Amino acid sequence: MLPGRGQDGRAARLARILGTRTAWSAVGDGEFFCPGCGGDRNYQRLTGHRRFTLLGVPVLPRGETAPVVECAACRRHFGTDVLDHPTTTRFSAMLRDAVHTVALAVLAAGGTCARPSLEAAAATVRAAGFDECTEEQLNALVEALAADTGRVFSEPCGAGLAIELHEALDPLAPHLAPPGRESILLQGARIALADGPYTPAERDVLATVGSALTICAEDVTRLLAAAARTPS
């Protein structure tokens, strides 16, 4: 008999006699981004109860398992933290709303809503997914926001505007790679530069955008300077 063969055989026989089994119960469902499939899928949230088995028959409880998420397509199990990642549909909406908010903030900071800035902002917002956005719509939104909040054009980024930017950008930032975060900042910079050099209020707004996107102050300064040197 080869060395170890007897122990391996006994271990295999014991495993067939004694073991554990997990019984899963569904406690919720929804849609999530499945890391296994690489796309949006339906899921079930499961809780499990482990039991010792004798000859395949459950005999003694062994406690609960941590809850898991089961993909309805690939049937793989994932930790519940996978639900923190937005679905593709939700991510696209978050990105679209973020670009729209940044464009409005930069236009408000610019003070005059000059036609070049409006054209640049409308093109940026349309590219982000608001296909029907026009210069007139953006101008009306900026004026309505100013009237509603009492905000004065060309003033530094006040608390209200900073809150709006953080509400739009904070949830998005963890799901963007550094180039993606920088892209949003640079889109705002190009809108600001469309009618001339940055104003102090525009720089202040763009600094707030960079902070909300977790871009350090030094990199914000570098990116804004590079955008100013780049021909439009």
Automatic annotation (TrEMBL):
It comes from the Bacteria. Residues 98-223 form the Co-chaperone DjlA N-terminal domain. InterPro entries: DjlA_N, TerB-like. Pfam families: TerB. This is TerB family tellurite resistance protein.
